[in-house]
Amino acid sequence: MTNSPRVVDMTLRDGMHAVDHQFTPDQMAEIAGALDAADMDVVEVSHGDGMGGSSINYGMAAASTEEYLEAVAPQLSDTELSVLLLPGIGTVEELDMAADHGADICRIATHATEADISQDHFEYVKERGLEANGLLMLSHMATPETLLEQAQLMEEYGADAVYLMDSAGALLPGDVRERVSLLVDGLDIDVGFHAHNNLGLAVGNTLAALDEGAVTVDGCLRGLGAGSGNTQMEVLVGALDRAGYDVSPDLYGTMDAAEEVLLPMLDDDTMPELDNDSLMLGYAGVYSSFLRHARREGKRYGVDPRDILVELGEMEVVGGQEDLITDVAERLAEEQGNAVEADD
Amino acid sequence: MTNSPRVVDMTLRDGMHAVDHQFTPDQMAEIAGALDAADMDVVEVSHGDGMGGSSINYGMAAASTEEYLEAVAPQLSDTELSVLLLPGIGTVEELDMAADHGADICRIATHATEADISQDHFEYVKERGLEANGLLMLSHMATPETLLEQAQLMEEYGADAVYLMDSAGALLPGDVRERVSLLVDGLDIDVGFHAHNNLGLAVGNTLAALDEGAVTVDGCLRGLGAGSGNTQMEVLVGALDRAGYDVSPDLYGTMDAAEEVLLPMLDDDTMPELDNDSLMLGYAGVYSSFLRHARREGKRYGVDPRDILVELGEMEVVGGQEDLITDVAERLAEEQGNAVEADD
């Protein structure tokens, strides 16, 4: 257990999801400057889906990663700069560009059971002299034992730290404790935790992770982030202070960054909300992209879309298997004895 | 530990704070009907500050408690009806009225160290045949041992259960565990927990309380409630389901009550927010009424109002001691070497 966890701000990366990837380089520079002034340990800058994510498929960003890094890097004195890379989306060229623009850390993210696609990326990141962190996404979909195996693979590839990403906000504090403690015991490298707030547990789960030996944690100012948002950074810093941790980011500075700098840039409707949709995603433990499909098929088959999401969660359906949603809706309609509506 | 905690909905009582006590009797009836349909265990109906709270001092409600109870009681089949009484604000006449209108439970609330003012009230509630629950407010301001003594007093007076109220949202999960487990061990009656979300920990703290043996918990639809709001009820029900608890309220029914029934009644700006103000109240552990004074005196003495709040929290200042705020501001200004601005 550490008394001085490293605190990583995700506002300019996971927070990009909340603004449809539309922060301008100037806005990023201003936010990064405020975070640096608050002595944040690390800021991460990338499209929400990592470098190379700006596309029709994942949403076009307002600028290129290069433009963002050029704007942010000069704002940072002691705060380190991180970028995100998803194998299959980001490229070696972008990694080179990020290294040339002063990135200190590259975080390499894979699905919780697919660490084996990341070996080349870890090796290249280390070759370029950057710190390499591995992220296991949707970690609620793997058993603690599988997560440990996957984390050990990343350690083997050269990772300096491995993060459990609770991408759907589906873990309970007890789940977090079990998983983090297993990783802390089974790895020689640092363990990190990244929460989403779908079950209202982002701060509570982050405290639980630290309690079990995690040493690096993520958050976003004002709780930005995909879905219902990440751990609200200024609240996390306050809770860590209260809990007796000695963190680098200053509470007032972080609060000011959130409310004086970031908030005026946001529309009311861009604030992540813990509404029924995000609750159901956390409860069922499924991708947010399933919502739309579940609603459509629910209507078509006269089934509550929430039942479809729960069933998909139990089947551990992942992205790319959207066609299964129709099958599930049809089966539930039969089981529930619902008349199938005409194809309208 | 229970596997079937009693779940108490506060939307029509603590939630009244978020709407300036302006729910109409018709709105209350509609919300109560939806909660009854969702098999909620208990709904509490009163002015935010309890029966008799409707006043210039605490804010005028849209109707009298009697009108609210007349509207709500006919909507409830299996759901029990609770009212709140603060000694000094509510009267015996109102308690009689509530009993005559079908209240099953009366909750009697005192400051965490002032249980001794509640003896007559407990005795009268029991005499009228109602269940009597004791609430220790601002429980972060008392040591665990003091809380146990105070709870034992309420038990002696006839309480059927005692609740720890984290009124300022200032407790961390470890604080909750320590306090709840001490009460569970030291009392023969039920222990309950009521959270506020100022540090983002309402759901996490409620799970921690149940884990230590609390058997009854509070929440509000959409996270209404004073300050940054109570535990968000539909999220709590989802988290309890996921954690394997067998609760009476139905998840979908509770979600529908929140989003189909309550939400359309609310203005955007009535939704409690975890903003810097509510964060500071939880962080400092002080009354929300101090905010305004701290801002004013902070401006006057050139001191950050947050420093004033932290100082007041450390001094354990309570309501009625607002004049101390000026003294604190003046002292901090001297300590920080700030020039005192003219009285403008």
UniProtKB/TrEMBL annotation, chains A, B:
Similarity section: Belongs to the 4-hydroxy-2-oxovalerate aldolase family.
Protein name (record): 4-hydroxy-2-oxohexanoate aldolase
PROSITE patterns: PYR_CT (PS50991)
Enzyme Commission number, as recorded: 4.1.3.43
Recorded superkingdom: Archaea
Entry keyword set: Aromatic hydrocarbons catabolism, Lyase, Metal-binding
GO biological process entries: L-leucine biosynthetic process
Gene Ontology molecular function, alphabetical: 2-isopropylmalate synthase activity; 4-hydroxy-2-oxovalerate aldolase activity; metal ion binding
Domain Pyruvate carboxyltransferase: 5-255
Keyword Lyase attached: yes
A Pfam family per the record: DmpG_comm
Annotated InterPro entries: 2-IPM_HCS-like, 4OH_2_O-val_aldolase, Aldolase_TIM, DmpG_comm, DRE_TIM_HOA, PYR_CT
CDD domains: DRE_TIM_HOA
Keyword Lyase: yes
Known function: Catalyzes the condensation of the acetyl group of acetyl-CoA with 3-methyl-2-oxobutanoate (2-oxoisovalerate) to form 3-carboxy-3-hydroxy-4-methylpentanoate (2-isopropylmalate).
SUPFAM superfamilies listed in its UniProt record: Aldolase, post-HMGL domain-like
Gene3D superfamilies: 1.10.8.60, Aldolase class I
Organism, as annotated: Halarchaeum rubridurum
